């Protein structure tokens, strides 16, 4: 797959395709290894995207004035 910037939904969709292909057991070893590598990269991308989203939600959920009282 080209090294273009994927959004979360596209990355998850491609990751699902990879999982289905690997679970089918029909991919030859070299293809399976390449798919596994691509899947690992997509998984990391999705994890990082979710991590950033969680941090943003946490940041937005802090009540006004609450952050100043911490220090």
From TrEMBL:
Q: Where in the cell is it found?
A: Cytoplasm
What is one Pfam family matched by this protein?
Exonuc_VII_S
Please give the Gene Ontology molecular function terms for this protein. Answer: exodeoxyribonuclease VII activity
Question: What is the superkingdom listed in this entry's lineage?
Answer: Bacteria
The record describes the protein's role as: Bidirectionally degrades single-stranded DNA into large acid-insoluble oligonucleotides, which are then degraded further into small acid-soluble oligonucleotides.
HAMAP family the record matches: Exonuc_7_S
What this protein is called in its record is Exodeoxyribonuclease 7 small subunit
Give the organism the record lists: Acutalibacter muris
The gene from which this protein is expressed is xseB
